[in-house]
Amino acid sequence: MTRIDFYVLPSENPGEIDLFACRLAEKAFRSGLRVLIAVDDSERAQKLDELLWTFREDSFLPHAPQNADQQAAIEINSGEDPGMHHGLLINLCADIPTWFSRFDRLAEIVCQHPDSLSRSRTRYSHFRDRGYPLQSHKIPN
After folding, report:
1. Is 19 helix (H, G, I), strand (E, B) or coil?
2. Is 5 within the bounds of a domain?
3. Residue 4 domain-assigned?
4. CA distance linking residue 17 with residue 51, whole number of Å
5. What are phi and psi of 31, to 5 degrees?
6. Which helix (H) or strand (E) holds 21?
7. Residue 95, class by beta-carbon neighbours within 10 Å (0-12 exposed, 13-18 middle, 19+ buried)?
8. Which end of the chain lies in a sparser environment, N or C, as judged by fewer CB atoms within 10 Å?
9. From the CA atom positions of the chain, what is the Rg in Å?
């Protein structure tokens, strides 16, 4: 069964979510996990691709769009079927991907913006009501 982790950021800025997603992807990659970051559209996928190159000066994260010719340790999904992925799914989509349960772990990132909080409460209830193991992590400043 998929383990679901909610990462609660102290900031109200929704832009912090993508930055934290990069940090989380880096940590998972360093632990040997394959990572799929799900976004809603190709525009956000492109922005995330750029952020994965620039979020930290001293870090290189091998990544690519999921539909690229070759697999990468970190892939960005903008609506495609996830294929053979099953490690960590970082969900940055407005909705829960229908295929999330293929993954060992699902990460939901929450900021203090009212829309983000409301969406996370709904998701938390959805997962809890279906018996998924849930963890919540408050991220310090």
Report:
1. helix
2. no
3. no
4. 12
5. -90, 0
6. helix 15-30
7. exposed
8. C
9. 14
**Which 8-state DSSP code applies to residue 32?**
T
Helices and strands in the chain: count of H runs, count of E runs: 3, 7
Structural domain containing residue 81:
12-138
pLDDT tens digit sequence for 73-86:
899 999 888 888 88
Q: Which residues contact 54 (CB under 8 A, 6 or more apart)?
A: none
Measure the CA–CA gap between 140 and 78, rounded to whole angstroms: 29
Q: Look up the pTM and report it.
A: 0.93
Question: For all residues of the chain together, what is the average pLDDT?
Answer: 92
10-49 residue pLDDT tens? 999 999 999 999 999 999 999 999 999 999 999 999 999 9
> Scanning the structure block, which residue is given the tokens 């998972």?
28
d(CA 132, CA 129): 8
The DSSP letter of residue 71 is: -
Residue 120: CB atoms within 10 Å: 18
Domains identified in the chain, total number = 1
Tell me the average pLDDT across 80-97. 92
Residue 140 pLDDT more than 90?
A: yes
Q: Work out the pLDDT band at 69, boundaries 50, 70, 90.
A: low
CATH number of residue 64's parent domain: 3.40.50.10110
